Amino acid sequence: MSNNNNKDNLLLSPITIPKSMSSLNPSNHTNVSETTRNDMNRKATIVIEHLIQASDVSHTMQHWHVYLKWNERFFEECAMAYKEGRAGRDPAKNWYTGELGFFDHYIIPLAKKLKDCGVFGVSSDEYLNYALENRNEFERKGEEIVKAMMEKVTASMQTHETRLGGDDDNV
């Protein structure tokens, strides 16, 4: 008998599964699979949400010099907007306490969530460690840093005004 004839020798009969074995019922497997799929989709959505949140503030979870570079640029942008009348608040007044609060209530909890979701391996440990280190470093040096950033913005604006004034004199 050849292998091609084996299918002709099959006898198909209906199978009745006792209620005591209902967990083996294929119709229940669909629900389990659907529940598992829904759980996986929910978890994937949470991970993606964490990634989107982290992408906006990733500089806070990197080396100190990376954090400082982007923090300074954002400060300068806010300070220039204030000095030019495009913003209502002087960022220098609350920048120090605002950054510490930002680390405590947003960055560090987010870094912990990235670690807890478990998809980033040892990188998530680095994100959390950098966030904690940057927070502590900013607590130690932040007031001086804010003062220096404000001086830089003021000097930059004076240079800009001098250039504009110089150009007007030549016209």
Automatic annotation (TrEMBL):
Q: Which domain of life is it from?
A: Eukaryota
GO terms for biological process, alphabetical: signal transduction
Recorded hits in InterPro entries, A to Z, give:
PDEase_catalytic_dom (IPR002073), PDEase_catalytic_dom_sf (IPR036971)
Q: Note one Pfam family from the annotation.
A: PDEase_I
Molecular function as annotated in GO: 3',5'-cyclic-nucleotide phosphodiesterase activity
Domain PDEase positions: 34-116
Name of this chain's protein: PDEase domain-containing protein
| Organism expressing this protein natively | Craspedostauros australis
